[in-house]
């Protein structure tokens, strides 16, 4: 007899009391899908040498179907704990928003807004208007516009100002940012001809003056945000580049990448270039991200001279890259904080995490350590000094002193230790709110810099006890 015949029919499993009860919450369709998948899987297993009776048991199948249902019902976009030590983590969504920005975004989601409507005279308006004055005020620029992200901002600016002509850039600045943003490729996509000048480590003013000519569309300077060239180096100051560009009647575009709106030295952080410095140096167009050191939503911000910004706004790509009302609301609220807040490092989460005192992180660690240390007998857990980084290419060589819960496998053999680490990483990822750490020197580090605030710490602690089950370990005291 075929053992697969012993499996219940879909309708039978659907009628199981526990499964039927789940229908009220998850709906018939999703429950049916979970049941189907469970039975398909059981059928496959039964072709192996498993014991038919165990697999085909109705209660066991119902429990499996419910577990699958929980998985199917879980949203794909989910909150995680970023304990990687990289504060602005591109793969984890970069900056989290200020409360004021969240409130503004929620309000804009719930109601119609005056997005492109001038409330003064009741006529059609321009959506840039919502943030343009603020951006000019904060950067000293004459005009501003905003698009989907900084890659889009650079693409648009290059296309509007330099299509069909040469874009001059130093060989030391042909940057690649993660996720296929490469300056040479962006220039090509924008229709500019890349003209490299100088050398990788040294570029002089004469390199630009000898290259500039009738085919030049613009000069480009890119902030080398995710690497540093050190040693025998030289680059041309922005003000000199601006002089050279303007003497030949072409604009200077500076891609700042992060573009901090706050004075980082005043916050006790390493210095980071600010848009207003670039504007003051004479740049015609400056671009930067909304969700890096600015601490706002994903956006590409373009500030600069009135004529250049007007040309950019007229380009068809501007419409294709425009921001939606939710992002604009969040961006405006974040920018307002830079104008009004007397405590940016309190109100903007990215700045709060970057400026968090080492002693406070250590205190969080001391609180967590007793709860973590005896959970898994395979590991020795300690609280160890570590170094967080800013991330997203910001200030690549600077590190911030921090503390990490450090899980070091106890096994004697290297292969076994690697397997234990892998299981731990997987178990942490399977927690209701996944915990993402980083591997370093044979241990798993949970950098506590970004675990701030009572609610976050409580949420983390609240799910820690599920770790042994997900790791597949024996309960404390037992054999692992
Ligand atoms: C991050 C970065 C970009 C890309 O910005 P996104 O907002 O991620 O599109 C471009 N240029 C530089 C120098 C950057 O640092």
The CATH topology of the largest domain is what?
Aspartate Aminotransferase, domain 2
Indicate the percent of residues in helices. Answer: 40-55%
What count of helical segments does DSSP give? 21
Structural class: alpha/beta
What CATH first level of the largest domain would be assigned?
A: Alpha Beta
CATH architecture identity of the largest domain: 3-Layer(aba) Sandwich
Quaternary: single chain
| Sheet of most strands | 7 strands, mixed
Strand-residue proportion: 15-25%
CATH homologous superfamily of the largest domain?
Type I PLP-dependent aspartate aminotransferase-like (Major domain)
Mean of residue pLDDT? Answer: 92
Number of strands: 17
Shape: globular
Overview of this protein structure:
- With 480 residues, the protein is α/β, with parallel strands linked by helices.
- The protein folds into three domains: 3-73, no CATH class; 81-91 and 352-472, Alpha-Beta Complex (Aspartate Aminotransferase, domain 1), CATH 3.90.1150; 99-344, 3-Layer(aba) Sandwich (Aspartate Aminotransferase, domain 2), CATH 3.40.640.10.
- Helix content is 44%, strand content 18%.
- The protein is built from 21 helices and 17 strands.
- Strand 10 (252-257), helix 12 and strand 11 (285-289) form a beta-alpha-beta unit.
- Helix 2 (17-26) packs parallel to helix 5, helix 7 packs parallel to helix 15 (325-340) and helix 8 packs across helix 13 (306-314).
- The protein starts with 9 loop residues before the first helix and ends in a 9-residue tail after the last helix.
- 42% of the residues are buried.
- The model has no long low-confidence stretch (mean pLDDT 92).
- It binds pyridoxal-5'-phosphate.
- Pyridoxal-5'-phosphate binds at residues 149-151, 154, 175, 177, 181, 222-223, 225, 255, 257-258, 289, 300, 392-393.
């Amino acid at each position: 007899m075929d053992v697969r015949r012993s499996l219940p029919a879909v309708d039978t499993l659907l009628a199981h009391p526990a499964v039927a009860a789940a229908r009220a919450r998850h709906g018939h369709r999703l429950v049916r899908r979970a049941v189907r998948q469970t039975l398909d899987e059981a059928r496959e297993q039964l072709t192996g040498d498993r014991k038919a009776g165990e697999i085909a048991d109705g209660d066991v199948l119902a429990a499996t179907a419910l577990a699958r249902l929980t998985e199917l019902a879980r949203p794909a976009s989910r909150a995680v704990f970023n304990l990687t030590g990289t504060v602005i983590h591109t793969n984890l969504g970069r900056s989290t928003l200020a409360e004021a920005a969240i409130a503004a975004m929620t309000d804009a989601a719930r109601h119609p807004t005056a997005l492109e409507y001038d409330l003064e005279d009741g006529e059609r308006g321009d959506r840039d208007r919502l943030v343009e004055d603020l951006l000019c005020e904060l950067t000293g620029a004459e005009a501003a516009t905003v698009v989907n992200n900084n890659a889009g901002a650079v693409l648009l600016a290059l296309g509007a100002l330099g299509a069909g002509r040469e874009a001059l850039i130093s060989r030391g600045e042909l940057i690649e940012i993660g996720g296929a943003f490469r300056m040479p490729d962006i220039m090509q996509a924008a229709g500019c001809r890349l003209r490299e000048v100088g050398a990788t480590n040294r570029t002089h003013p004469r390199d630009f003056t000898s290259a500039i000519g009738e085919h030049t569309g613009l000069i480009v300077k890119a902030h080398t945000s995710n690497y540093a060239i050190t040693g025998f180096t030289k680059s041309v100051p922005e003000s000199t580049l601006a002089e050279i560009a303007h003497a030949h009647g072409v604009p200077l575009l500076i891609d700042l990448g992060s573009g901090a709106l706050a004075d980082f030295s005043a916050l006790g952080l390493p210095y980071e270039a600010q848009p207003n410095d670039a504007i003051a140096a004479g740049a015609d167009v400056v671009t930067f991200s909304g969700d890096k050191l600015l601490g706002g939503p994903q956006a590409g911000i373009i500030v600069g001279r009135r004529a250049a910004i007007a040309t950019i706004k007229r380009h068809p790509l501007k419409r294709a890259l425009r921001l939606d009302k939710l992002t604009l609301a969040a961006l405006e609220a974040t920018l307002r904080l830079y104008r009004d807040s007397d405590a940016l490092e309190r109100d903007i989460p990215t700045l709060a995490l970057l400026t968090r005192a080492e002693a406070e992180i250590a205190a969080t660690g001391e609180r967590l350590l007793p709860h973590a240390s005896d959970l898994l007998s395979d590991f020795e857990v300690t609280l160890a000094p570590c170094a967080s980084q800013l991330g997203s290419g910001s200030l690549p060589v600077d590190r911030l002193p921090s503390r990490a819960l450090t899980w070091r496998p106890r096994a004697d053999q290297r292969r076994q230790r690697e397997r234990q680490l892998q299981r731990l990483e997987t178990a942490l990822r399977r927690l209701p709110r996944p915990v993402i750490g980083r591997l370093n020197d044979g241990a798993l580090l949970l950098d506590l810099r970004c675990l701030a605030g009572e609610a976050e710490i409580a949420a983390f602690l609240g799910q820690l006890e599920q770790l042994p089950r997900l790791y597949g370990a024996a309960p404390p005291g037992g054999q692992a």
